[in-house]
């Protein structure tokens, strides 16, 4: 394994470890458990999970890995706050979508070399990327890895 | 910038961004504000901050960047739970230690090439590293970056 390959594989591993931790936490919850709030008046667990699915779904076009699979989640979990939409997907549906989106991402990651990761993501312009070459695909992966960790830290605080 | 350099610089940038977010949050708090709990009976903000300083301090030897600067923090913030130690450093002291430890780390990171990041960290054996080359320095950096994000997610939930 070259240093280049090792560095990239390590970043994908960090992503995968956070996905697995989140999966373990959220997938084990019933619909009722997912309706618990982090604290009185704060977001519900179901919102955090759906939010992660929507954010990860949006990574597909951002990384050049194809169209979104579930843009219909945005109203409930991304553009609006928790409770903006009354009817939410069931735990079983969210689990299916979560697995589907993360599997699609991981399949894409497995095809990326260091050079692919260092390329610009699709939302930054060629001009801006020339000025700041760190606006690359890997920056998206690392940012979203931190985003999972951020909400995991919150989710574990919910009263049991 | 080669892909290899870009990938490594992107990882250090993700670390730095999380450090800056945590700095902005914790450094602005008074001693009194730091004594707030995340939620009734949960950790206090001062514990999270001191915990981050202690964990980052321990990264120095782990990454081969020298001895620890503040092992005295462990009893209050790492080996014990919150409130295990009655007398805690002031906000001003924690801020000085936080800045000192993170500056020392960043100075070290700036000397690391992709090849340096891909080397084993100091706690894994040569034998174990041969089996799993992803037990490298970069894995520590990414894991600790996620660790900052995890506790940041918690810290923002503390009642204002």
Please tag this protein with its features.
mainly alpha; Four Helix Bundle (Hemerythrin (Met), subunit A); 8 helices; about 160 residues; globular; homodimer
How far apart, in Å, are the first and last alpha carbons of chain A?
44 Å
In quaternary terms, these chains amount to homodimer
Helix count of chain A equals 8
The CATH architecture of chain A can be given as Up-down Bundle
Tell me the CATH superfamily of chain A: dinb family like domain
> C-alpha Rg of chain A, in Å?
17 Å
Low-confidence stretches of chain A: none
Helical coverage of chain A, percent range? 55-70%
Classify the fold: give the CATH topology of chain A. Answer: Four Helix Bundle (Hemerythrin (Met), subunit A)
Briefly, what CATH class of chain A? Mainly Alpha
Task: Give the beta-strand count of chain A.
Answer: 0
Described by strand count, sense and barrel closure, the largest sheet of chain A is:
none
Largest interface, Cβ cutoff 8 Å: A-B, 38 and 38 residues
Average pLDDT number of chain A:
97
- Morphology call of chain A: globular
Order of helix and strand elements from N to C terminus of chain A: HHHHHHHH
Specify the structural class of chain A.
mainly alpha
The number of distinct structural domains of chain A comes to 1
How much strand content do the residues of chain A show? under 5%
């Amino acid at each position: 394994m070259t240093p280049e390959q090792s560095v990239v594989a390590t970043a994908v591993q960090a992503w995968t470890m956070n996905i697995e931790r989140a999966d373990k936490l959220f997938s084990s919850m019933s619909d009722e458990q997912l309706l618990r709030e982090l604290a009185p008046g704060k977001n519900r667990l179901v919102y955090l999970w759906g939010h992660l699915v929507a954010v990860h779904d949006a990574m597909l076009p951002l990384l050049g890995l194809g169209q979104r699979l579930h843009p219909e989640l945005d109203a409930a979990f991304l553009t609006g706050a928790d409770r903006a939409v009354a009817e939410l997907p069931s735990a079983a549906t969210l689990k299916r979508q979560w697995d589907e989106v993360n599997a699609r991402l991981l399949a894409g990651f497995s095809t990326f070399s260091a050079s692919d990761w260092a390329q610009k993501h699709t939302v930054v312009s060629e001009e801006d990327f020339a000025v700041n070459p760190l606006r690359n695909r890997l920056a998206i992966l690392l940012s979203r890895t931190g985003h999972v960790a951020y909400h995991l830290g919150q989710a574990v605080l919910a009263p049991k």
